[in-house]
Design brief:
RibonucZ/Hydroxyglut_hydro, Metallo-beta-lactamase, Chain A, Oxidized Rhodanese, domain 1, 17 helices, globular, 486 residues, six-stranded mixed beta sheet, alpha/beta
């Protein structure tokens, strides 16, 4: 197994005439693909850092021939532009794409030879108007697999509300187009065709995705609500658009970068890996109005951190939470990391378009403490201590999990203030009396606590271990009650 930065080669399928590798990045719930046949390579939806693809091709004594993009991605910045520059391989989009750089805009049905294989363009608009599925045919011309981008996920389909402004359409219009794409282009394919989607469970690009990342089309026809054979277009539109949460604010900025271009990752790393002494760090943070982003483990942040710094740990859903909570990709960022993880943090920030990292604290937080600088802590208690407190008094408890998690089960009388939309609830937190904050396992609650403290709200207490430990402790919780329909 090959290790990529927070990426895992989850499927490695080899046949005599082909090699298909899915490079799945858990933090983004994103799948990129490496396809090789007879010394020719195609990359589909590559990550921002491209050196691993180039190295992989060299190891196979192969050359990157094509870089296929399924659409202009919103949730991450693709590496297509840099990879094309480094390898000379052309970028290929489907019909209706209008990038600001040189690319092949393929026609529906156009075929691209790759060794003994053929990759056929299936224009499948609906998620976006340029969305395209790539059909891989083997040396005998038999349909082998589809790389479906955000058109078809496992258990779901791409949300139709992200491109409505650009397309001058409603989400219902786009959902109707997606229905036609699925019925006319994908569902007629043979059941044994393998489905390789661009995302899995946890991505904000869909709502009901399965945890698996590879499946057969036949199984999806059975399991995926959106592929029901007897489904009308009206039912599809209603079900696909129901329950869509607002997309993260950074999504349009990533689309812009993918469409118009961006700086090479090497430039971002060169700037971001500037090492600051504690005094230089403090001066740089003040001079640039940079956000101090602490990416260590939450337990370390709780014990000590630079005042007003924001915690988003590398060992959680790092990049999506950065995008959701910082939002502005041009915001200067200065890092506090564990020693040796500086470059990883910069790369993972760049994956979602945050290229304005200006440097990091040399020697990590211990250097800050050793320099005699002021630092802050977060009061954190185990769930069993909260149980004792709640048995004696009615203390305010705030649950920062998603609304669906809260609705499923929550502490009696707890308020739901989802982390994604924490700014909306700032006025609701007590100003003086102690209050308690928890999430599912302890990661999101520390993010919330860091944001609250940065806003001057210090009378909070974190519940270590989150709802998982709360249930174990015996604190009374509610069971989900289905809302009454009048």
């Amino acid at each position: 197994m090959r290790t990529w930065v927070n990426a895992e080669i989850n499927k490695n399928i080899k046949f005599r005439e082909m090699k298909i590798e899915q490079i799945y990045t858990g933090c983004l719930a994103q799948g990129a693909y490496y396809i090789e046949s007879k010394g020719e390579v195609a990359i589909i939806d590559p990550l921002r850092e491209v050196e691993p693809y180039i190295k992989r091709a060299k190891e196979d004594n192969a050359k990157v021939k094509y870089i296929f993009e399924t659409h202009f991605h919103a949730d991450f910045v693709s590496g297509h532009i840099t990879l094309s520059k480094e390898t000379g391989a052309p970028i290929v989009f489907g019909p209706l794409a209008n990038p600001s750089y040189d690319a092949i805009i393929a026609e529906d049905g156009q075929e691209f030879p790759l060794g003994e294989l053929t990759i056929k363009v299936l224009h499948t608009p609906g998620h976006t108007m340029e969305s395209t599925t790539y059909l891989l045919k083997d040396k005998n011309g038999k349909d082998h697999a589809i790389f479906s981008g955000d058109t078809l996920f496992l258990g779901d389909v791409g949300r139709p509300d992200l491109a409505q402004k650009a397309a001058n359409m409603t989400q219902e219009d786009l959902a109707g187009i997606l229905f036609d794409s699925l019925r006319n282009k994908i569902m007629p394919l043979n059941d044994e065709v393998i489905v390789y989607p661009a995302h899995g469970a946890g991505s904000a690009c869909g709502k009901n995705m399965m945890k698996e990342t590879v499946d057969t089309l036949g199984n999806q026809k059975k399991m995926n609500y959106a592929l029901r054979a007897d489904m009308t277009k009206e039912e599809f539109i209603r079900e696909v658009t129901d329950g869509l949460l607002p997309p993260p604010q950074y999504f349009p900025l990533n689309v812009k970068m993918n469409k118009e271009g961006y700086a090479d990752i090497g430039e971002i790393l060169e700037k971001g890996t500037t090492a600051f002494s504690p005094d230089e760090f403090e001066e740089a943070a003040n001079a640039t109005n940079a956000i101090i982003l602490d990416v260590r483990h939450q337990n370390d942040f709780v014990k000590g951190h630079i005042p007003r710094s924001i915690f988003i740990g590398l060992d959680g859903g790092f990049a999506p939470w950065v995008g959701a909570l910082i939002a502005d990709v041009e915001q200067p960022i200065i890092l506090v990391t564990d020693k040796g993880r500086e470059e990883e943090a910069i790369i993972r920030l760049s994956r979602v378009g945050f290229d304005a990292t200006i440097g990091y604290l040399k020697g990590s937080f211990s250097a800050w403490k050793d320099a005699g600088k002021d630092y802050d802590t977060i009061t954190s208690i185990p769930a069993k201590e909260l149980k004792t407190i709640l048995s004696k008094e009615k203390a305010p408890v705030y649950d920062v999990r998603k609304e669906t998690e809260y609705q499923s089960e929550h502490v009696l009388d707890a308020e739901n203030t989802p982390l994604d939309y924490l700014n909306r609830y700032m006025a609701e937190f007590p100003k003086k009396e102690p209050f308690y904050v928890h999430c599912a396992g302890g990661y999101r609650s520390v993010i919330a606590a860091s944001i609250l403290k940065s806003r001057g709200i210090h009378n909070l207490i974190d519940i270590a271990g989150g709802f998982a430990d709360i249930k174990k402790s015996g604190i009374p919780v509610t069971d989900y009650v289905c809302p009454t329909t009048l």
